[in-house]
What we know:
The protein folds into two domains: 2-56 and 360-402, Urease, subunit C, domain 1; 58-354, Alpha-Beta Barrel (TIM Barrel). 38% of the residues lie in helices and 21% in strands. The protein is built from 16 helices and 18 strands. The chain has an eight-stranded parallel sheet, sandwiched between helices. Helix 5 (151-166) packs parallel to helix 6. The model has no long low-confidence stretch (mean pLDDT 98). Bound molecules: benzoic acid and fe (ii) ion. The site of fe (ii) ion has 6 residues, from loops. Benzoic acid is lined by residues 144-146, 184, 233.
Amino acid sequence: MKIITPETILSPTRQLSGMSIAFDTHIRAIGQLHELLEQFPEADFVEVPLHSLVMPGLINPHVHLEFSANKETLKYGSFMPWLNSVIENREDLIGGCDANCMSKACDEMLKNGITTFGAVSSYALDLEAAANAKQKVLFFNEVIGSQATMADTLYDDFMSRVEASLQVKREGFYPAIAIHSPYSVHPALIKRALKYATQHNMVTTAHYMESPAEQEWLASNSGEFKPFFTEFLKQDYAVNTSESFLSLFKDKPTLMTHVVQADHGELKQLAQDGHTVIHCPISNRLLGNGTIDLEKLDVNKVSWVMGTDGLSSNYTLDLIEEMKIALFMHANRDLTTLATELLTNATVNSAKALGMNTGEIAVGKEADLLIIDLETTPSEQLPVHLLLHGYNIQKIYINGNEVS
Ligand code: BEZ
Ligand code: FE2
């Protein structure tokens, strides 16, 4: 058992001072030091700086490790030119990032306080790096392909990747399933993959309503996706509508990534079916997809969390940076309320959406903790300053073990 007495605890919804935490793999007690010492007289003390803060480790539910080699290869500014540049440069990008390069991306996340991540895996080339990462990992095996004639082959390939991920036996590694998007996955494939996920109790995710081009293609089989599909895939209509896509997910709460272009009806449906939106503001800006309307999510009671997306549409895998950008992007929202909301969504709410018992400084939660040196006594605007000044992370615990 360890006992830590920081100056401040950010739970993340409550800011406490003068309290101690007793933890082993889990948080066992929170209270006055003398009370905890009575309960756990043999406990070891964790040394902390004078102005220390303990908060839950951050959760990044959406990253593409396989594309971590990108810096200037991909074309930013608008979705279709970006997607075309991904297809054009895919081999080089993937070939340019070996297991070592992907492990570096995992280490970058850890350095930035991310103790759990969701890796969306297209080819299972990231399996080794994800399996060896120090963090908790949801390994999202992705299914993709809109052509009916290819469905069986693609499903078999997907299943062999799922099975490979099931061979990884380590604590904190969870095989999971990603459906690429409504425009790129045939409904028959979606049905089979979701059925498998439900039967095996696996977490699911999908990209949904990311770009104006996707919205137009799904709504009216027109727009910038039309030449893409007619030329590359010999299709002149979308394989799903937005509505038919969502109907497939009715009984499987899923993490829906981006959702920038969804209308009120779609948002209402997302809330009704218990889905959670993953907000990736930097990716949305760089790919010209617009800004998610948080008021519209609120009105429709849609839950949302924060994600970085991959280095294919971001310059860093840093949720603090992502939250700071969100703080400035959603400038009409109250500053302190939004900062608190961002930190809550990046920890406890993300854990809930992923079905994990972490993300919170509370008794019974897994001890995934960040110890931060604030260098000064925090004000009541701590959430704002954490995002503005960044984190000076001194120690990180995952399941109560110190990692670095
Ligand atoms: C498809 O198979 O339809 C597809 C694959 C990748 C990107 C877009 C569409
Ligand atoms: Fe993504």
